[in-house]
């Protein structure tokens, strides 16, 4: 579905009752399906894992934990939840204690009014590491989670043994210069190698109040399905069940508000990441379309960097779990 169709449907839906024609185009989240995609149901698909909660830095976070050994923290991104890691969690748990976190504002974690700058969100994770009884952790982040992971390493380096960033670099000054409009002939059906990606939603999510009205009550699926096409190599890597999980997580206006707040904090994130010390811990950066972004931003900001390019779209943990696991297992030794 084209962006123009998405916006037209959503704009009409925000001001009028859904007509039957529009309703037919919006996959509605059914109550019966809600039980199937709850955290309780999801962990039953991952033997050895369980749900848990902790109040840290003034916010309640939900996480899923399993395995024994050195602590590995998995931080997901938009428009997903901890479930984005489900294809890699079982193997990692053979040798590590794996904790996949719904970051502030995500999934069944609390959605406070503020605190969505990545420095504050990193403080959430720092306190969680302490509550889990670990002196330090291996921290792995994807998308928004990658930004939080970097902020944790930059501000609390004593807590991060090793750092892994997947397909998204930390916000810094160059992000503020990205164009509002795509170059002529560069905005295609899929993102490809990332050289001509057009991240229009970075700007759309800056608008306060409007996205919630446009996309609540299940209409978020329109945006999510578009993303799962544009940003993947193979749409089927994120199947209908996975999409139901993510639709349920972002179907409320409050969830959309909180997710957009991660993007609205980018200007503050850029300021917070200016002048931070070079990271001294080992850093692994795994990129698909975001590879060049990772390389350009991280090279001057790290002292021990391994860069890996994978044949994948943006959602590497779900599109190429085997390739990601191979890199993680080798890096975590």
Quick description:
The protein has helices at residues 3-15, 20-25, 31-36, 39-44, 89-92, 118-131, 144-155, 200-204, 210-215, 220-230, 240-249, 253-264, 266-272, 291-298, 316-319, 321-332; strands at 49-56, 59-66, 71-75, 97-102, 137-142, 160-166, 283-287, 305-309.
Notes on the structure:
The protein has 333 residues and is α/β, with parallel strands linked by helices. The protein contains 16 helices and eight strands. It has one domain: Rossmann fold. An eight-stranded mixed β-sheet has the order 1-2-4-3-5-6-7-8, with helices on both faces. Strand 1 and strand 2 form a beta hairpin.
Write the SSE topology.
Blueprint: H1 3-15, H2 20-25, H3 31-36, H4 39-44, E1 49-56, E2 59-66, E3 71-75, H5 89-92, E4 97-102, H6 118-131, E5 137-142, H7 144-155, E6 160-166, H8 200-204, H9 210-215, H10 220-230, H11 240-249, H12 253-264, H13 266-272, E7 283-287, H14 291-298, E8 305-309, H15 316-319, H16 321-332
Parallel strand pairs: 3-4, 3-5, 5-6, 6-7, 7-8
Antiparallel strand pairs: 1-2, 2-4
Helix pairs in contact: 6-7, 10-11
């Amino acid at each position: 579905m084209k962006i123009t169709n998405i916006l037209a449907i959503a704009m009409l839906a925000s001001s009028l009752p859904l007509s039957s024609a529009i309703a037919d185009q919006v996959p509605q989240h059914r109550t019966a399906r809600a039980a199937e995609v709850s955290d309780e149901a999801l962990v039953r698909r991952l033997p050895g894992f369980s749900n848990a909660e902790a109040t840290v830095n003034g916010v309640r976070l939900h996480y899923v934990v399993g395995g024994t050994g050195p602590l590995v923290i998995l931080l997901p991104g938009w428009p997903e939840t901890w479930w984005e890691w489900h294809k890699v969690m079982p193997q990692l748990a053979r040798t590590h204690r794996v904790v996949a976190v719904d970051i502030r504002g995500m999934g069944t974690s609390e959605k406070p009014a503020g605190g969505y700058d990545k420095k504050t969100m990193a403080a959430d994770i720092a306190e969680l590491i302490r509550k889990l009884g670990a002196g330090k952790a291996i921290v792995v982040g994807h998308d928004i989670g990658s930004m939080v992971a970097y902020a944790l390493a930059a501000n609390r380096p004593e807590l991060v043994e090793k750092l892994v960033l997947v397909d998204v670099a930390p916000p810094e000054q160059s992000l503020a210069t990205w164009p509002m409009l795509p170059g002529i002939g560069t905005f295609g059906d899929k993102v490809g190698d990332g050289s001509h990606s057009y991240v229009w939603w970075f700007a759309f999510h800056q608008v306060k109040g409007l996205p919630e009205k446009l996309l609540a009550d299940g209409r978020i699926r329109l945006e999510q399905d578009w993303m799962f096409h544009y940003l993947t190599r193979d749409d089927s890597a994120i199947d209908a069940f996975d999409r139901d999980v993510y639709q349920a997580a972002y179907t409320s206006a409050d969830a959309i508000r909180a997710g957009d707040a991660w993007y609205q904090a980018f200007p503050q994130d850029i300021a917070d990441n200016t002048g931070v010390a070079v990271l001294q811990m080992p850093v692994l950066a795994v990129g698909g379309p975001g590879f060049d972004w990772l390389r350009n931003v991280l090279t001057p900001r790290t002292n021990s960097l391994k860069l890996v390019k994978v044949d994948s779209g943006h959602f590497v943990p779900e599109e190429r779990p085997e390739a990601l696991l191979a890199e993680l297992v080798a890096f975590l030794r």
